[in-house]
Design goal:
Number of domains: 3
Oligomer: single chain
Region (Disordered): 132-172
Structural class: alpha/beta
Organism: Gnomoniopsis smithogilvyi
Number of strands: 28
Pfam family, one: Pyr_redox_2
Domain FAD/NAD(P)-binding: 43-394
Largest sheet: 11 strands, mixed
CATH architecture of the largest domain: 3-Layer(bba) Sandwich
Protein name: NADH dehydrogenase
CATH class of the largest domain: Alpha Beta
Length: 531
């Protein structure tokens, strides 16, 4: 499912074309099987198959609820190991879990959730079975303007593009009814509207992104063996730029270093003098969630591995290199007009909200009361109580009165949408607004909500996040770990890092595959084939 024009994914396209969908294509109902016992279960529809949605569906009791998952992808991705798949340390299948393997008691509907009618308790879904789901990170460009006999001026062209009608949906539109709705659509990569990021950068949010990055890196090394290539071009192409100094960017830089140092250096020894890995971050410090001593340890590790870290550096533009080599030119604010060449740009600079969430917080929930879902002003997420029920606030949008009084706000205070729950990256818990947008938080939220519904009592105990610690791999079998109880660095932290992610793998199959691939990579080297 998931965001926008200056950002990421095809759900953004679905959201943009929503207003025309009804006129373009008819709808049909989504029917489900009747229980042979004749007992009607409550229908729980889960939007999303990420950490929150998948974990919730696994935990919810199928004997008490009819589980329906709506997602544009038919699998769950174990995202903490994506960087390992992007360099061949692990194979892609070791990080995937099929949604349909949750059991025969789960109904799966592959498509994009475009809208929710809260009064009718119906979700509008655009089917998406035929789409290329290799990556849902980047929003496609807007459709071209319709042809005309006279070429418009630049001002007219801009106007035409901005007002062009949305694209026609690719799949039929389905109405999916629900008794309870769990919104777990996640968030998407933030581009900040920087020129060229959407078109030319590589994100690392899905398995398709990891595949493209892996193939691109291997292709660059093969391309640079050409005797016809100049040293200057070779040096530019073998510069690997990573934008973002958070855990994803740092771990990918570390995994890329291991790939080059352990494997590619033996195959392409003549290219090693040209290789450079650079991490750019706008903040004065990488890994801001770690204490300064651990961040300094990471900086020291990268310095010993010849990985350059440029803090307080802002990327202003990415464009294709005009020399036709297939590389890119980065404009860095601190370098003035000078540009930096790179063979690939991996972008990991934070999250932005899903366009479905952006749409839902603008909808009037009750026309008579003039209420809407409460939006967090900082993140744009939906504010929930400590049982993950969506909170309501006086509506202030085109469909409601703008002059909401203090009395109306007070009357709406504390009102909840009892049959709509929001978990994961798109939720903001009112009593714990600073929770990080991590897999650990999302999975704990999902487990709490599912267990509460299984008990039939959400009011028993409020949600409280239990911080199990934060870990980041730094390359060379070294890592850092931070928790309230202790701090670890080096090899011991690396052992803990691998053990934790192995035990957190969802299925027995992947608990077997992950250590097998780790052993194969250690014994025989990473897979560097391109196919």
């Amino acid at each position: 499912m998931a965001p926008k024009v200056p950002a990421v994914t095809r759900t953004a396209v679905s959201a943009l074309r929503l207003t025309k969908t009804e006129a373009v294509i008819g709808t049909r109902d989504f029917a489900t099987a009747i229980e042979s016992t004749g007992v009607k279960k409550e229908r729980v529809v889960i939007l999303g198959s990420g950490w929150a949605g998948y974990a919730f569906a696994r935990t919810l009791d199928p004997a008490k609820y009819e589980r329906i998952i709506v997602s544009p992808r038919s699998y769950f991705v174990f995202t903490p190991l994506l960087a390992s798949t992007a360099v061949g340390t692990l194979e892609f299948r070791a990080t995937l879990e099929s949604v349909r393997r949750l059991g025969k008691n789960v109904s799966f509907h592959q498509g994009w959730a475009d809208d929710v009618d809260f009064s009718r308790k119906v979700i509008r879904v655009e089917e998406n079975c035929a789409d290329d789901l290799s990556s849902q990170t980047i929003l496609p460009p807007p459709p071209p303007p319709p042809p005309s006999s006279a070429a418009p001026s630049s001002k007219e062209t801009h106007s035409v593009i901005q007002t062009a009608p949305p694209q026609i949906p690719k799949g039929p539109v389905t109405d999916v009814p629900y008794d309870k709705l769990v919104v777990a659509v996640g968030a998407y990569s933030q581009t900040f509207g920087i020129e060229g990021v959407r078109q030319h950068a590589n994100f690392l949010r899905d398995i398709g992104d990891a595949r493209k990055i892996r193939l691109r890196v291997l292709a660059i090394f093969e391309q640079c063996t050409s005797p016809a290539m100049s040293d200057e071009t070779r040096r530019k192409l073998l510069h690997f730029a990573i934008v973002g100094g958070g855990p994803t960017g740092i771990e990918y830089a570390a995994e890329l270093h291991d790939l080059i140092h352990d494997d590619l250096s033996k195959i392409y020894p003549a290219l090693m003098p040209y290789v450079q890995i650079t991490v750019y971050d706008v903040a004065p410090k990488i890994l801001p969630m770690f204490e300064q001593t651990l961040a300094d340890y990471a900086m020291g590790m990268f310095k010993r591995q010849n990985i350059t870290v440029k803090t307080d550096h802002s990327i202003q533009r990415i464009r294709p290199d005009p020399d036709g080599s297939g590389g890119f030119c980065l404009k860095v604010k601190e370098y003035g007009d000078a540009e930096v060449g790179a063979g690939i740009v991996v972008w990991s600079t934070g999250l932005m909200q899903n366009p479905l969430v952006e749409k839902l917080v603008q909808k009037t929930v009750g026309a008579a009361e003039g209420l809407r879902l409460e939006k967090d002003p900082k993140t744009g997420g939906i504010i929930v109580d400590d049982r993950f029920r969506a909170r309501l606030t006086p509506g202030i949008n085109d469909s409601t009165a703008e002059g909401t009084t203090a009395a109306a706000a007070a009357a709406a205070s504390g009102k909840l949408l009892d049959d709509v729950f929001v978990i994961g990256d798109c939720a903001v818990v009112d009593s714990q607004p600073s929770l990080p947008k991590t897999a650990q938080v999302a999975s704990q939220e999902a487990a709490y909500l599912a267990k509460g519904l299984n008990r039939g009592n959400l009011d028993a105990k409020p949600f409280k996040f239990r911080n199990l610690g934060t870990m980041t791999y730094l390359g060379g079998w070294k890592a850092i770990h931070q928790s309230s109880a202790d701090h670890l660095t080096g090899w011991a932290a690396w052992v803990l890092w691998r053990t934790a992610y192995l035990t957190r793998s969802m299925s027995l199959k992947n608990k077997v595959l992950v250590p097998v691939y780790w052993f194969v990579s250690w014994m025989f080297g990473r897979d560097i084939s391109r196919f």
